[in-house]
Amino acid sequence: MGAFVPILMPILKKLIIQFIVSAIASKIFGKKSNKGGRGSSTSSGIMINSSGNNEPIPVSYGRQRLGGNRAFIDTSDGAGAAGTNFLNQVLILCEGEMGDIKKVYFQDKVIWDVTDGGTTDTSGVGTNGVRLQNFTTEGQTYNIAHMAYYSGTNTQTVDTTLQTSIGASTWDNDRKLLGLAYLAMKLPWDEDYNGSAPEITVEIAGKKIRAATNPIGSSSASADQNPADVLLDYLTDTTYGKGIPDADIDIASFASSRTYMSSRFEINGFLNTSEKLFDNVEEILQACNGILTYTKSGKYKFTPRQQSESSTFSFTEDNIVGEFNIQMTPKSSKFNKVELTFNDSAKEYNDNLVIVNNGTYLTEDNNVELLGKTETTLVSDATIAGNIATWVMDNSRNQTTVEFTATHDAIDVEAGEIIDITHPVVGFTNKKFRVQQVTLTEEDTLQFLVTEYTSSIQI
To answer: Please, what are the domains in the chain?
Structure first.
């Protein structure tokens, strides 16, 4: 994830000292989707039971329905001897530690639901495991010999019932699967399986993560997790994330963003660990319309795009050096219609599509449909998905970019901030822009890359 550190240009001519991570351009134009496989970035892939020893293990935040990887599957007589009476299976779901289990789907039918009679106990399981009880489907009791859920703690021990069924020589006491949430299953063999393992998916509450308060708060697992908490976890985690030390996080900015986003955005979804770290950070930012900035102080700052943001610095002929480089929004980057794919909780977390369009934009484009397509793996609410899609469409119409050089009077201006420009040559009067990047030139001046800021389109 090299773009997360200052980039030293050839022969020390230029040094990028600040920049923000952009979440839109690559999502629509550059990012490739691996739809149809376990590595898919949409629910069509995450709800497939895969088999293999090199499958990526997802990170799940908020409430989400997951398939899993069949880490072990075999038949036995239920007492550790070869046979066909029972199908023993271990289904790894995601990185732990997760919250409580909510539902289990068997061949796409709900067979256990905590809100509809499903209970748990601790018989026949290891430490920190729970055995599921009271399986039902369509009013009929379902015959499950043993199904246990482990949330992925670092203290969980081997499932004792599964160990007995498989045999301790094969499934020994070291099979703890520390830090991984999984299901341990002993299923009566059924001819209806048609010679293959049944498809099983599970709904669980989100990963146990720290609260992005100032100072950082305690960890908890839940649905509807705050984007600031999710981003903090992903940036600092040393297993699947970037592993950034807390000392390099501007925690005050995360805490402020957490408050702002609590009534606007919520995370329920997953990240693919097979994707690049940078792409996953973009995924989080798009899900909350946020900005991650690497500042000159060497810290990562998180801020939301908001309406009515104030300018922190005014650029005029007095502090602008040389010429402007202005690029208007090209037609190829404009949309009058946007389709966003998301994991819809109202559709049992299957893929759904939200479509937004604008008749005024269509008229401006001579009634030629300009369609943008994107997706998110972290949003399960149709209203939030619609808000994000609308912003993508509106923002595509307001992307005038300006590059200019300024004196050291602007040394305190940070990437992500709003500035205004007044210059008679280009006809700007207090026109607002957001700083995307600040570069120190060999002449000891500051080169700015800024994009148009439109208050009314912000969420």
So the answer is: 64-204 (no CATH), 311-328+400-457 (2.40.10.220)
